[in-house]
Amino acid sequence: MDDFLKVFGLLKEYLGPTLAVGAAAGWYLFRQRNADAVNTANAEGTVGAINSWKEIAAQNAKRADDERTARLAAEARADEIAKERNAALQQVWVLTGQVEILTKQLAELQKKVAAMEGNGNAKQ
Questions:
Q1: Measured distance CA(37)–CA(44) in Å, rounded
Q2: Half-sphere exposure of 76 (CA within 13 A, CB side)
Q3: Rounded to whole angstroms, what are the CA distances from 34 to 30, 39, 44, 85, 124?
Q4: d(CA 22, CA 30)
Q5: How far apart are CA 124 and CA 119, in angstroms?
Q6: In terms of DSSP H, where are the helices of the chain?
Q7: C-alpha distances in angstroms, 105 versus 54, 112, 116?
Q8: 15, HSE (Cβ side, Cα atoms, 13 Å)
Q9: Is the dihedral of CA 24, 25, 30, 32 positive or negative?
Q10: I need a labelling partner for 43 at 20 to 30 A (CA). Which of 58, 103, 106, 118 fits?
């Protein structure tokens, strides 16, 4: 029995610290594994967020391009309408001038006709 107690005593001297070191190493590795898992999840989340932001930026860029294209088309159409309006106004002014000339000529002709009728009545 004394031998068993001596062996147990010797084991107790080495086994306690060995188990303590093993438990500490196990606890450290377990915590490190959890920290690595958290860091990996964080990195994956960050990459996922970056990809999401890139997708949103691409959608916004496409939307901006579409709006820019639509705005340019609208501006081109507005310029075309303005040119058509200006041409129509120019034609109206030309026609207005011609109507004024014709009105003056008609007034002159009416005066001549009236003068002829006056001369014709005097001769009869």
A1: 10
A2: 6
A3: 6, 9, 15, 75, 131
A4: 12
A5: 9
A6: 2-123
A7: 76, 10, 16
A8: 6
A9: positive
A10: 58
Euclidean distance between CA atoms 98 and 80, whole angstroms: 27
In the numeric block, the tokens 């967020």 are attached to: 49
> Whole-angstrom Cα distance, residue 21 to residue 45?
35
**Helix, strand or coil, per DSSP, at residue 25:** helix
pTM: 0.45
Pick from 21-30, 45-54, 111-120 the range whose average pLDDT is largest. Answer: 111-120
Q: Give the confidence band of 121 by pLDDT, cuts at 50, 70, 90.
A: low
Looking at 18-22, 29-33, 62-66, 113-117, which range is the least confident one?
A: 29-33
Q: Scan for tokens 């029995």, then name that residue.
A: 1
Residue 117 identity? E
